[in-house]
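[job 0412] stage=complex_fold ligand=magnesium ion status=START
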Amino acid sequence: MKLEKKAVIFDLDGVLCHTDQFHYQAWKGLAGRLGVYFDEEINNRLRGVSRMASLDIILEGSGRSYTRAEKEALAAEKNEAYRELLKGMSPADAAAEVRETLEALRARGYLLAVGSSSRNAGFILERIGLEGFFDAVADGTEITRSKPDPEVFLLAARKLGVRPEDCAVVEDAGAGIEAAGAGGMTALALFGDARGCGLEDYDLNSFRELLELLP
Ligand code: BG6
Ligand code: MG
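[job 0412] stage=complex_fold status=DONE, emitting structure tokens
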């Protein structure tokens, strides 16, 4: 299959770099402290969704309700632990395969953007040495509805000045695949629960495989 696209919008966490493992560790620590069961399967439901929505999913297992203020404190506690893990990241955390593929897509004339639900996206891009690389970045600090709502991807397309149908989206989250489809974009699934979720247009076996789909 060959796609006719002008732009590629990349999810960040779990696609451009493996911060998904740090999200998991940080949530696992919080869940452990609260005595709430948490595993990889529950973690998969957190991919692509906002911090607060993730916390709500984790607290489903708590058997009690939390006030807004308590939830804000818990989300802040998780974010602090997560940011400590992010501080250990470096440009080595953006794989050579990722860098080379991005460079090759750019050389082919594609516009490249990030579309992430994360409010830490700017910090992560800085840590992995990709700040300033993309033609546009749309992240969790600029949206009110996180994936599966298409808001972040539509914002990225608007910033690039391209129509949604001219964009391909690369996602590791089922929620992100759903968002791309809802936004009228072509959804490419890589890793996570995106592959095989049933809503994707194509399952990628590797990041590099983008070069086969996008001539
Ligand atoms: C997404 C992650 O990219 O960002 C989710 O896949 C995460 O797991 C969400 O909850 C929000 O991230 P942050 O950094 O704002 O807590
Ligand atoms: Mg992701």
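Residues 12-14, 23, 46-51, 54, 79, 116-120, 140, 173 surround 6-O-phosphono-beta-D-glucopyranose (ligand 1) (CB under 6 Å).
[job 0412] exit 0
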